[in-house]
Amino acid sequence: MSLIVLGTASHVGKSVTVAALCRALYRRGIPVAPFKSQNMSLNSYVTADGSEIGIAQAVQAFAAGVEPSADMNPILLKPKGDQTSQVVLLGRPYKDVQIRDYYAETDMLLSEAVAAFERVRQRYGHVVVEGAGGAAEVNLYDRDIANIRLARSLRLPIVLVADIERGGVFAQVYGTLALLPEDIRPLVVGVIVNKFRGDVGLFASGVEKLEELTGVRVFGVVPYIEISLPSEDSLSIADKGHRTTERPIRIAIVRLPRISNFTDFEVLEEYASTDYVRPGASLAGYDCIILPGTKNTVEDLAVLNRAGTGDELRLARERGVPIIGICGGYQMLGRRIVDAGIESGTAAEYPGFGLLDVATAFTGYRKTTVQVRRRAAGPGPILSRMGEVDGYEIHMGETERGGLPEAFAGEGAATPDGLVFGTYMHGLFQNSCAVNALLVYLSEKRGVPFEPIPNADAGALGAAAAYDDLARHFEEHVDMDAILPYFQESGPAPEEWVGGRGAPRRHQV
């Protein structure tokens, strides 16, 4: 059997709950895989066969001990702005659509999602399904293929996750259950209260009240914990920065309006004071500046130019500050970008920041998605220390390097002094050797100590220790004995699901 994890809202911890469940089952020898029918995120991952999926499903797959695949996230929406998103279907670019047109394809997309779920279930036997956003968006019920319509198609037991840190947890749970359609509400077998701060014993009376009000069992109250797992989407950026402000090395990451794959820098956040700096803010005082990836290079370049970020970057270059561009940030550092209408909808040429003598062209609706392993080949004090690194490319457009040295064998570009370089390689700073190369140089320059991190402390998506820590924390606070029957061949019959305590109980909402 399988289980669906829905949420009372966005950012309540559905993705982490699914990862924790997958790891807990894996540790018990139960084969399992994650699934999310539709994800909206600019943080994505490239699978071994070159498919693009949401990074959360890749994390969950690694937690389950299996290789990520396109079937685990058959529909990925990547917002581009102006109510337009790129639709990635079964790992490949499908089309750019405005949201009103996207809904016209709901039935087809749901059919594709259900077929993908069945393939995952046939291959792995058990599946933990993640919903999207809040489950009780009543105005979307006719087209909600991530929650209600999917649940109606799969008819699986549901666990509802609520976020007590936001406050109003009783209203979250009671209101969500009350608003669920009549045929979906009885599928809810339990509630998990997430992100509790303090002594969970103090909420014992709250658990009793929730169960009394809803007739649904509370499977557990999970305390807030910080574990080094990649963030799912840009909502997480607001949570960053509070742990790193006292570290001597300061790194600025330009907070692009359409920033993508900022998970590239989450290991750096552990070892340096890392700020996500908005366009127009001063870049003075930073030891290094990074331009991250973006879903729309042309539009974000225009925003930065209007805000004066280009001038800030050129001043930093004059001060000898290292400047690194990843993917779209690499494209921006060049002389120009020639768009045939792929990025902006209108054919035009745009000047870049001119810090790298390269040029990028968007000539067709083609996307490069590939895992890579490359050796740093560039000059200077940073690239020369890196050695071989793993990563993945997700980009549209092609960049001509001109006469500059390569940053990596076969890819990227660097200035002759190596202090400005760009690459299409996401995941670069999830390699400990890359983190060490950068932070050792910056520490030497500042005259402060830095102890290189060992390979085991790198932030690879498949880091087993982090998943085990997450599972142990989850199992300590959640009644796994109440959940495990739903992953057994002879699990409880549907009429026994409600309440999760054996005898069926009617919802009181």
UniProtKB/TrEMBL annotation:
Record domain CobQ/CobB/MinD/ParA nucleotide binding: where: 4-226
Pathway(s) this gene product operates in, as recorded in its UniProt entry: Cofactor biosynthesis; adenosylcobalamin biosynthesis
Protein name: Probable cobyric acid synthase
One GO biological process term: cobalamin biosynthetic process
Pfam families per record: CbiA, GATase_3
Keyword Nucleus set for record: no
Active-site feature positions: 327 (nucleophile), 426
Domain of life: Archaea
A GO MF label: ABC-type vitamin B12 transporter activity
